[in-house]
Amino acid sequence: MGVTLPAREANLFKSIVKSYETKQYKKGLKAADQILKKFPDHGETLAMKGLTLNCMDRKPEAYDLVRKGLVKDLKSHVCWHVFGLLHRSDREYREAIKCYRNALRSDPDNIQILRDLSLLQIQMRDLGGFVQTRCQLLTLKPNHRNNWIGFAIAQHLNDNRATSVQILEAYEGTLEEDHPPESERYEHSEMLLYKAMLQEESGDFERAIQELDRKQAKIVDTLAWKEQRASLLLGLKRLGEAEAAYRKLLDVNPDNYAYYVGLQRCLGVEEEAEGSYSEGNTAKLMVLYEELREKYPRSAAAKRIPLDFLQGEVFAEALDRYVRPFLRKGVPSLFSDLRPLYNQPGKAEIMERVFTRLETSLRASGRFPKLDSLSSPLPPPAPSAPSSSTSCCTSSPPLPSSSSTSPPSSKAGSRRRRRRRDDDDESDVDAVRASGDHDDEVVEEEEEEEEEDGEIDDDQEPPSTLMWMLFLLAQHHDRRERFDKALEMIDRAIAHTPTVIDLYLIKGRILKHAGDPVAAAALADEARSMDLADRFLNSECVKRMLKADQVEAAETTAALFTKDGDQHNNLFDMQCMWYELASGDSHLRQGNFGKALKKYLAVEKHYQDMEEDQFDFHTYCLRKMTLRAYVKMLRMADRLHSHKFFCRAAAGAVRCYLKVFDKPPSATAEEADAATMQSMTSAERKKARRQKAKGERAKKLEEERAAKEEEAAAAAAAAAASAKGAGGGAKKGGGGASQGAKPVDTDPDGEKLLQVPDLLAEASKYLRLLQDHADSSFETHLLAYEVAVRKRKLLLALRGIKKMRRIQPHNPDGHRCLIGFFHLVDGLPVEDVNPVVMDVVTAERKEMLGAKSLVDCNEAFLDEHSGSLSHRAVVAEMMLLLSPEKKEMALKLVLDSPSGGGNLAGGFDDADVSSRWRLDQCVAVHRLIQDSFKDGEAAARWRERCIAHYPYSLYFSGPKSSKVVGLPVVAGVENVAGGGGVGRGGEGGGGVQKEDSSSPCAAQNNTLTVSSSSTAPGIVATENGSGSTT
């Protein structure tokens, strides 16, 4: 039993609690010391002193004091509560819950402890316990609104929606009949909409819509009321009323795609497959969208959606109408908008016909063709300057027209800057479609622009329209893997207007797809140098450099947009996951497993922080009554680890551990140095010893300097904590006070991350996260198989194979695992396998293979997929495994693979995607021949075949790759936009950025010269290739 304090000391103890709550930690420590002088064994004072020290970033002392306080007063609810707060500050939520439950044994009705317990229960998704705790809080304090709402949400999350509605109705019964006060109108409105959402989720549509109609006057968010009512009418099959509701919503926002989907469902039109409708439904949609297009002439959605379901010549006409305004205005993201159409069979050919017709007409007459001439045969293409047959890096001469000397107007460039999106991320287009946001200023500008366009006599298009048409055609041919044609188009566009930055980005992207990432990085760096204040260009350049494994150059370039002296921490604090993933992938390709793992685990840490960040919203959302958003946030957090960035990071971490497990370091650094010294002469050994001693001295000085900096940072943090004794507390009752001090990275290369006792156990930790949150991913179960096989867990490996076959039954990696697994089992000694496990494996083998042998199963797989390169390669690999004497036959099987439709001359058709060769497949087969078959002559023959398909490939040293012909020579001017030229959007530099006189690529012989024949007006080409404005 704890000591009872006298009145004076009791008041001092209350002041400790108050000082903690007001973050006056120095004052609280002083009061605690005064009590402990007279009562050194007072447990609650010891605990409160420990909690105060925890807030001052003195955690070891804090834990010692709190544990000592618990020993002195084991039954004190204060001591247990404080111990729980310490665990909560360290994110040890399960331990914190145990402490809170112990505290409630001594004081079961403590409101504060119950509230803290409920926060941890919802954070850990202990929904059963959350319901009980919220019910107890409501019973103890029924006059508090948050207790009613919290209990309703608890029942909702526990799938008791009807009970949740009853709780809200009981709460409404405690309110007055008239409207709530003006200050509470929004909160009451959100509660009503939340109740309607509950009724809709429970299927009680009729009651929900009656509630919405009855309480309409009390609902502040009128748009949400209209959307929910329309959804409920659709659910009730009152299609006429629902159609009217959705049409009213379209009047409000005609660019919201969700409204169009709802309107289609009102008409009974359902999508049978992606972009596929029945003939009758297609006719309905054509009539509907013709009406909507006339009613909302400024709506892009009303024009874009029909492209998904129209076919044939009707699709061609609609596409023609759709792209013309975007080409006229110069919208670089047009191809991103059209990219999903390539997934529909037959549309790629129609798109090419439409684009070619438009380009031919613009080049010949400067006008778009008449729309009624779409069905006429194509005119013969006009002669144009082809790109070099030996180099991808030279530009075509300027087009013989006045347009070649007319850059885009600054207003058109301003529109491009406003609408620019990353073409690599299709989700940006979807987000724009779904949001449907309006900008009155943009609408006004577009009205002025249309008036300007209307002043053009006789439908004459601006000179820049041809350039944007070539830009679109280049991306079209790139999508169909016609890289020569794509480069010809983009070179013509650059010759037309050399100052448009997007052209260089797309040319780099084409070369990246063609297999030359180094040339792509050089072009991206050139584009970046044309507008040094553009962060998007900087990010694109960094991506290309990392793809080319130029990590140091990428880090230097990325640092240009970070804080001075703290580039690494700044990128980490910004949660720049695309950079960390790309950097990790590059390190993994180069065999730097420690650095790669460090990047992947940084991404995993970001997701931990995101999960932690929801903690603050458990109280905030109840207080502000943002209930619908709160429930959506909780559901999003439950899916957080299924995001593609996390899955890529976790899979990369598992691969790093597997790589190190398969090839552990053969010797320590000392052993390697000793072996090297033995092979040296006496003079060489003396020189090596001197260099080693010099390096050790430099390393020692560096360590001393780092230690001094760390001590100085710690001293500064302690001084700041002391100075902030009256304030400077911690987040959530226990964060540190040294917010300004950045931690020193003691393992920059990630070597310590790999020095773990059990690599496979670490891999399993991240694998479990993938299995819990990405169970539908083929890659998850492939990695599960790889880990299980190395751990000799046969049943786990078998489970991975079964799940792979269920997700993708014809995947070649699944076949490799199947054959390899049973071949492994056949070679295991009987005494090494548990008989029960062997019985299960035997039974599953009969189910998977039937009566076939592994050789017969392998041959059957070949017969089924004889036209696919990747499948033939896997069959050959398994043939070599099962029958090493058939090496020549297996090798012939790979070398004689049919080329499919993937040749560069004609590109590929939508129908032969499965049989065409992809560059990554060609590279994988080449490595298979080298590493597994160990046949250099066969590898050389395979390389020659691949060069015919991918002459730009850097891996195969193709005749058009930068390894052979050199890096691109850009027919443009450096730093045009950065120096006030036209550039990206024609706005000039306009920003200040740290920039060296030489770009990162310049250090790698990336000399970017200027072609005087294609110099833009207003630019003078100097002798050394630099540009200056006149």
From TrEMBL:
Write out the biased-composition intervals (Acidic residues): 438-461
Here the segments flagged for biased composition (Polar residues) are 998-1016
Species annotation:
Chara braunii (Braun's stonewort)
One Pfam family, short name: TPR_8
In terms of SUPFAM superfamilies, this protein maps to: TPR-like
Assigned GO CC terms:
cytoplasm
- Output the PROSITE patterns linked to this UniProt entry: TPR
Q: Where is the composition biased (Basic and acidic residues)?
A: 693-707
Where composition is biased (Gly residues), the residues are 725-738, 978-992
Report the protein name in the record: Uncharacterized protein
Please list the residue ranges covered by the TPR repeats: 77-110
Comp. bias (Low complexity): 385-410
